[in-house]
Design goal:
The complex is a heterodimer. Chain A is an all-alpha fold. Chain A is built from 8 helices and no strands. The longest helix of chain A is centred in the N-terminal third of the chain and has 21 residues, at 25-45. By secondary structure, chain B is mainly alpha-helical. Chain B has helices at residues 3-18, 21-26, 29-42, 56-79, 85-88, 101-117, 133-144. Chain B is rod-shaped, with a radius of gyration of 46 Å. Classes of the chains: A mainly alpha, B mainly alpha.
């Protein structure tokens, strides 16, 4: 029987945020490592072009770190980060005026599994992306935060400045409209 | 919600969870982390607008306070009309000792104004020495009838 190794304490987001506020740069880097992929998925799901995701992720973290004074733990840091990402994406679209539709490129083109299943899956993702494009922003973000990120309504509501009941209504409206679009 | 609907919701959730997965996989997290830290260290903060630091809610509260203060001034001016002359007079039969300082001040001001308007000289204040020759003659003629 091997002796139990001490488990290194994993700092919470709150501890990393406090450390960054105290000037600890590695704490900021750790927060990026912890949340960057989830943020990238959210941005891509919300309509970011694949080529823009890296820049948008960076810009979101920059804004978040510089606006940490507004974050008072009302929701998870990740949820708050996603709402900032939504603002960054909106600003980017306003500047570029490019289409928000995600092209059927590498992002939706799986390379493993049965070709027929891949095609079906790719088509479903393309339809969902197009359906999300047509939703009002609040419905789109609530849907992604709930269905894609698996967040709770309380957390989503706190991040978006609404009530859990309203967030639930936005989600169900989004689901109904997405189903209509995908069928 | 029936089973068919629930199944469809689950499928929708599965598709949503796949959405953006490849973009996330492609992201070089370590490079992104270093880039963010470098930018935080080197890039100047965005231009601060003059009122950029004020939360909109505080601006709303300030506007409401200004409106309330303005409404208060207007209401005060409407409710407090200028005192009328009759209001200045002391209550009939009141003793001076019963009057307040403000009431006394108002009475004195009213008396002063009345004196200014009617500068008459009492006959008790005038002696024969103060009369001129024509006035003395007129007085004697009046006494002779």
């Amino acid at each position: 029987m091997t002796p139990a190794e001490p488990v290194a304490a994993i700092p919470t987001d709150a501890a990393l945020i406090a450390a960054w506020r105290g000037g600890d740069e590695p704490a900021a880097a750790e927060l990026v490592r912890r949340h960057a992929r989830a943020l990238a998925r959210f941005l891509a799901g919300a309509g970011a072009l694949a080529a823009d995701v890296d820049d948008l992720v960076q810009e979101t973290f920059i804004r978040a770190f510089r606006g940490l004074g507004r974050f008072r733990g009302q929701c998870q840091f990740r949820t708050w980060l996603m709402t900032i990402g939504g603002n960054v994406l909106k600003d980017a679209h306003r500047r570029s005026r490019r289409s928000r539709l995600v092209p059927l490129g590498d992002d939706l083109r799986a390379t493993d599994g049965d070709p027929h299943e891949r095609a079906v899956a790719g088509e479903a993702e393309r339809r969902l992306a197009a359906g999300l494009e047509r939703l009002p922003r609040m419905q789109r973000e609530v849907f992604l935060l709930r269905a894609q990120q698996g967040l709770e309504y309380d957390d989503i509501a706190a991040a978006l400045g609404t009530t859990p009941g309203a967030a639930r209504v936005h989600y169900h409206h989004a689901v109904r409209r997405l189903k209509e679009h995908m069928q | 919600m029936n089973d068919d609907t629930r199944l469809h919701d689950d499928e929708l959730r599965e598709v949503a969870q796949r959405l953006g997965a490849r973009a996330a996989e492609r992201l070089d997290v370590e490079r992104t982390a270093q880039a963010v830290v470098t930018r935080l260290r080197t890039e100047p903060r965005a231009d601060v607008r003059v009122l950029g630091w004020i939360q909109p809610v505080w601006l709303r509260i300030a506007a409401l306070l200004v409106l309330a203060a303005g409404a208060g001034v207007i209401a005060r001016s409407l409710l407090h009309k200028p005192p009328e002359a009759t209001a200045l007079a002391a209550p009939a039969g009141a003793e001076l000792s019963e009057l307040s300082a403000d009431q006394l001040r108002q009475v004195l001001e009213a008396v002063g104004q009345a004196g200014g308007e009617h500068e008459t000289v009492s006959s008790q204040d005038v002696s024969l020495d103060d009369l001129s020759a024509p006035q003395l003659r007129a007085l004697l003629e009046a006494l002779e009838g």
